[in-house]
Design a protein that fits this description.
The protein is mostly helical and 171 residues long. It has one domain. The protein is 73% helix and 0% strand. The chain is built from six helices and no strands. α1 runs parallel beside α3, α1 packs antiparallel against α6 and α2 packs antiparallel against α3.
Length: 171
């Protein structure tokens, strides 16, 4: 329950910055992160999770909210490179879902997560004012929560070992 509350509190400054126009999120990045968060939530639910669904569900709802805000107030997502990276990340998500081997599933989700973050880098480099310091801090916390949830969540018949959670501290 505390994880859900922290997730909401952590997102408030980011949403505030989007609404004020001081942050312009990358649409493709938040689309990928939204899909990852939704798959995490659904896979945990399918595997009978209880309390962990609070964090995963909160993450899915908040990520969807940010993506929806990004559609009207964000940037990116339509260039050829964005489309290619989104497709590659989508393949990573699909690989995570269908992988029978835990390490393959973990590598796929980490790859999709990194591609999503990489999509934001050119925008931030060209326009550093499009992200605030609060944004950078929130994104770091968000990325670690998502990576933890994704690597800790069994998908299908794949039971990810506890050691895969340690990978989230690397990302």
């Amino acid at each position: 329950m505390l994880a859900g509350v922290i997730g909401v509190l952590d997102t408030i400054p980011y949403v505030r910055d989007i609404l004020s126009g001081s942050t312009r999120p990358h649409r493709g990045t938040w689309l990928i992160w939204g899909v990852l968060a939704l798959v995490v939530c659904l896979s945990q639910r399918a595997d009978g999770a209880s309390w962990s669904l609070i964090m995963a569900g909160t993450q899915a709802v908040l990520t969807a909210l940010i993506f929806l805000l990004a559609v009207s107030r964000g940037v990116g997502g339509l260039s050829r490179m964005d489309v290619v990276l989104t497709a590659v990340a989508g393949a990573g998500v699909a690989g995570w879902i269908v992988a029978d081997a835990p390490i393959v599933a973990t590598c796929c989700v980490v790859a999709a997560d990194l591609i999503a973050a990489a999509m934001m880098l050119p925008k931030t480099y060209r326009d550093p004012e499009s992200e605030t310091l609060v944004t950078a801090q929130s994104l770091l916390i968000y990325q670690r929560r998502l990576t933890y949830a994704a690597t800790a969540a069994p998908v299908g018949s794949s039971n990810l070992p506890a050691t895969s959670v340690r990978m989230s501290s690397i990302a």
